[in-house]
């Protein structure tokens, strides 16, 4: 867990390879619901995501329960983006209880807000193949064009500075209490998320006892 733009997704992908369990990203789950033709949840999800607001707990819980119930998550998973509220902590406890699973650790990444805004506002995504670029750290070879498939890159609606700062406000108000709850349970490990990807990965693996 951690604020928007702290690098949770890229680090979770690397941990997926290390641990051999799936990376379950709520961001990917939500975007899939939005893009799926005929999905009854798509329009409901869209209005929250594009406005930088949290998806309601009940709706998010349904999506998470469906994903964690798949066979590839039976031996474990890396959960990225959930729970984000104390109510969702209760929902996740219920889902895990029904599946006979429990959390081993909660890793919390942190970074200055200015760094999160820089990282997210410079991000550009290919709507066709899903490739991700950054205007500063990973620019495409041709301005505005995907290296992989040649499609025009776009800035996601939730990556504009105004929406990012709203997401940061929501995070502080609603998600930091989740960290306190897991700290009280003895599960929380706080990790400095500022710096290059390799340095942060080393801190995470150390926190997992895999150094």
Account of the protein in words:
Helix 1 packs across helix 8, helix 2 (26-35) crosses helix 3 (42-49) and helix 6 (113-121) packs across helix 7. The protein has a two-stranded parallel ribbon with strand order 1-2. The protein has a two-stranded parallel sheet with strand order 3-6. Strands 4-5 form a two-stranded antiparallel sheet. The longest helix is centred in the C-terminal third of the chain and has 24 residues, at 161-184. 47% of the residues lie in helices and 10% in strands. It has a domain at 8-110 and 170-207: Rossmann fold (3-Layer(aba) Sandwich). It has helices at residues 8-19, 26-35, 42-49, 57-68, 86-99, 113-121, 161-184, 197-207; strands spanning 23-25, 78-80, 106-110, 123-125, 132-134, 188-192. A hairpin with a 6-residue loop joins strand 4 and strand 5 (132-134). The chain is mainly alpha-helical and 211 residues long.
